[in-house]
Amino acid sequence: MVVIIKVAIAMVALALEIMSVLLILVPMPVPSHGLDVDELRNLTAAGIRGTIAAGAGCLLVFGDSSVDPGNNNHLATSTKSNFPPYGLDFTNRRPTGRFSNGMLTTDFIARFLWGNESIEMLAFLDPNLKEADLPNGVSFASAGSGYDELTANLSSVLSMSRQLEYFLHYKLQLRRFVGNKKAEEIIDNALFVISLGSNDLLQNYFIEPDRQKQYTLPRYQDFLVTSMARTIRELHRQGAKRLVVVGLPPLGCMPFIRTISIANGSQCAESFNEAAYSFNSKIQRKLSTIAASLNLKTLYADVYAVMHRAIHNPADYGFTETLKGCCGSGTYEYGETCRGLSACADRSKYVFWDAIHPSESMYKILADEILKSVTQDFFL
To answer: Which of 47, 161, 220, 284 could form a disulfide with 43 if both were Cys (CB 3.0 to 4.6 A apart)?
Structure first.
């Protein structure tokens, strides 16, 4: 989630425009009858486990730093995290390229799907990726990417169109390994995940001038939602049957954004939260329409609500620190500016790992909440 200090300059100018977005906000629906994680894990063979045994253990991920397990390690970009203290709580204290002290939400979901607590999500560009790994799925995500192609270009990372191209390469490799029929079965039963949008708003709209000159904030959000819909239709055309779309977090509560806001880090920057909230509302409405038209099983992951609750009621989630991250001072460091710095002693008490990205503990909570919102027929 690439952010530059210039955000501060844009805040005042955008405040009135963002407030206008609130006039069109709709309430965020809450899943009506989700299952407890323990209940999910105990479903019979006729339910989720039975479906997974038939091939639904494949997880295919598209997005940005929230779900990139290390693809950017193999790109000519400065948007990387394959150095300490990143990975401090990962296996063997290994910095993998994840923007976290440990695992990401998709790692936890993968472990549930695969029924293996020692396995990890693999990056498609990892040269160590083996054919035997392909049926389990991979991540095509690239830190710094977005729904807008320009967003990825700004950081020289994988755009969504490029991630989709790599998905086609993945399908070809999968067919060569397991055969056409089995490959089709794996894709048909796979779970697809899309997690994007933060970079589009934080960098490509609030910072860079081009999109602000072309669009008002509501119009730019509509542009992003149209891009999302196009991506979903292409994934469906390529075989996607089950899809999770992850909404934006409360952007204004990121330590970096708190630091540069006039609140001097003591409060969330509500104008940024409002922009994220309104965008999430538009995502949900479009996702509902697309799901109906394509006969696609979809799930909206409301990470905004979960993180907002954790930040404002930290004791309920076992946290004690919500204002800053764990790397360095925790107020502005992320990515390259976090390189080689010391980290807090107890990362499990922090909502944020660096000044932008959640900690492994927060990612675990998000994964559990997503799994709790899954209904029994989603995997059938």
So the answer is: 47
